[in-house]
Amino acid sequence: QVQLVESGGGLVQAGESLRLSCACAASGIFFSFADMGWYRQAPGKQRELVADITRDGDTNYADSVKGRFTISRDNAKNTVYLQMNSLKPGDTAVYFCNAHFGRSDYWGQGTQVTVSS
After folding, report:
1. Residues 107, 91, 65, CA angle at the centre, nearest 5°?
2. I need a labelling partner for 88 at 20 to 30 A (CA). Which of 15, 36, 48, 70 fits?
3. What residues does 111 pair with on adjacent strands?
4. Residue in 102, 86, 89 with CA at minimum distance from that of residue 34
């Protein structure tokens, strides 16, 4: 059983920063071999990829967050992070953690990020 628990969301003003964390509870070596990602979904919009990081540490970002967000992982802590700087009102959404392993995808429950102007 895989469980992903996000934390770190909140209400901030434009220009401020937040760091999201996603703790993965799973047996064995799951986390070390999983590709991890952060997605977001704003009201009335489809869920979209924000950033992902492979098990080897290669990263990928949506164009809208390049230069502002940084994804990282700590395999010793089974945790993936999303550092979000220079936040904009357009970043307001529920942020979801994703783990991709083989042919399976696992999701967290999401954490709300609200950026006021």
Report:
1. 85
2. 36
3. 95
4. 102
